[in-house]
Amino acid sequence: MAENVKLAIIGGGPAGMAAAIAAREAGVGDIVILERDSELGGILNQCIHNGFGLHTFKEELTGPEYAARYIDRVLGLGIRYETGTMVLSVSENKEITTVSRARGLLVYKADAVILAMGCRERPRGALNIPGTRPQGIYTAGAAQKLVNCDGFIPGREVVILGSGDIGLIMARRMTLEGARVRLVAELMPYSGGLKRNIVQCLDDYGIPLKLSHTVVDIKGKKRLEGVTVAEVDGTGTPVPGTEEYVECDTLLLSCGLIPENELSLTAGVELNPVTNGPFVNDRLETNVPGVFACGNVLHVHDLVDFVSEEAGRAGVAAAKYLSGDGGEAGRILDIVPGAGVRYTVPSTVDAGRCDEAIHVRFRVRDVYRSCSVRVAAKDREIMVKKRRIIVPSEMEDVILKRSALEGVEGPITVEIVGV
């Protein structure tokens, strides 16, 4: 079976819903959201802690509360959504093959597609931790779902490897459920999570954070009995003589997130090897015309508020594409990472037809203090923004004015200076 649709959005989490709402408000009538879970909301449904919505709604919400605001708007606008629907592939001509219990195998032929599949956690197999394979080892997100959705406590004596935000939040959550979190070990010399989560989830509960440390061995046959933690040098190599054995029955892994881009590859989308997400232009359009990307499938965000804002721009851009308002490509300028910058999103900007304000988001390579973010093209300085401190765990954002790009010859470089 095949069905035609103007705009198909893959993913019914915060990105997918925000994109759908923005596209509907921009005039797109025929929209379908395809979600593999049994309900809309995505990862927010298991994030019962607060801290969401401060930018979007100017108040502090839990994850389910934040999701509910968008679900209500989706329902209020009459946007069609299909839950329990697994997308198997997306072709280069925007044919989306799906399967569901309700409708069986179904192909959607879309005029435009927005990729909003989110991201997944890096598992133990990608970390090369030596030792046995006992029960008691979970990713932090899997443990979060077990505790918050299923009412199951994974263990009572916990070690957490990696200081990503999910790991920090689970340190607090496990403590509140009566477990003892022995420590959080972080390979890098700085935390991978937001400063507020370090304070609220570790400092407030007396949980030690050991920077430049990692797990070098796992003990236990049927059930985890303990792990060996060691200090690492500047190359990430364990330092002999620094090993410490910690008894525990649970190890949670919070070692980074990976955008879910298997479907992007089937669609012929070119991926950035740094972010593992698509290369996009200032309209969040990939190299495949009419295929857009937003949210954590594009690059991993810190705050869901930023996901929603970005997805809204993708929805408006898709609406313009469908209405033929894109216009012919004009003066394309590359945006490239310079000194101290890992990547930039977008990777190109059309100086002839871009919006009045262009968001350029990026992450830095290290901790920089008393520095400046400099945006320049050849010998022309476009803007300089002073910063007291910049850290890799927090995404940065600079806004370029369209008028500032007049007469500029690319590439545009985003770099950290004054360090």
Concise synopsis of the structure shown:
This protein is α/β, with parallel strands linked by helices and 419 residues long. The chain has helices spanning 14-25, 63-76, 140-148, 165-176, 195-202, 262-266, 304-323; strands spanning 2-10, 31-34, 50-52, 61-62, 80-82, 85-90, 95-100, 104-115, 119-121, 137-139, 157-161, 180-186, 209-211, 213-219, 226-231, 244-247, 250-253, 257-259, 291-293, 332-337, 341-345, 348-350, 357-364, 368-377, 380-390, 396-401, 412-417.
How does this structure look, described?
It is a single chain. This protein has helices spanning 14-25, 63-76, 140-148, 165-176, 195-202, 262-266, 304-323, and strands at residues 2-10, 31-34, 50-52, 61-62, 80-82, 85-90, 95-100, 104-115, 119-121, 137-139, 157-161, 180-186, 209-211, 213-219, 226-231, 244-247, 250-253, 257-259, 291-293, 332-337, 341-345, 348-350, 357-364, 368-377, 380-390, 396-401, 412-417. The N and C termini lie far apart (59 Å). The chain contains 7 helices and 27 strands. The protein is globular, with a radius of gyration of 22 Å. With 419 residues, it is an alpha/beta fold. A hairpin with a 2-residue loop joins strand 24 and strand 25. Strands 1, 2, 5, 6, 7, 8 and 19 form a 7-stranded mixed sheet that branches. A 5-stranded parallel sheet has the order 10-17-11-12-13. Strands 22-20-27-24-25 form a 5-stranded mixed sheet, with no helix packed on it. It has 3 domains: 1-120 and 257-327, FAD/NAD(P)-binding domain (3-Layer(bba) Sandwich); 123-255, FAD/NAD(P)-binding domain, CATH 3.50.50.60; 330-419, no CATH class. Helix 1 (14-25) runs parallel beside helix 2 (63-76), helix 3 (140-148) packs parallel to helix 4 and helix 4 runs parallel beside helix 5.
